[in-house]
Amino acid sequence: MHDVVGHHVQIGVPEGDEVLFLERLTAPGAIVNYTRIAGRLTLHVSSSGLVLLAHGPVGLRERILACPPHAYTPHTITTATTLRPTLAAVRQQGYAYCPDYFQEDALDVAALVRDAGG
Hints:
Layout lengths: L1 H4 L3 E7 L2 E8 L14 E3 L4 H9 L2 H9 L13 H14 L1 E5 L7 E5 L7
Antiparallel strand pairs: 1-2, 2-3, 4-5
Helix pairs in contact: 2-4
C-alpha cells in the first residue's frame, strides 16, 4: 500500500471512543502527519476512525452521535445530522474519505481490513 500511494500509511484499531494507531509508514515529501505509533484520535475526526465507527457496535455509534464531537477544522463533522449519513455511506462504499477533517490541506482515506472469514 505504501509503495502504491506514495504517502503515509497507518494501521488503526478501535479502543474505546478513539482509534489507536499501531503502525505507520511515512513518505518523504508528503504532508506532515500528526498521528504517531501508539497515538490516538477520536473516532469522528479521521478516516480510520470513521471506518471503525461505521462498522463498530451500534451502541458505540449512538454514544458518539449523542454528544457533539470537537471540531479540529471547519471541515470536521460535528453534528449527528451530518455524521449519521456519513457513516451509512462509509458502510455502503467500504471506505472513508475525509478532506481537511483533522488538519487543513490533508486528505485522509481509509478502508476496513477484514480477515479471511470476512
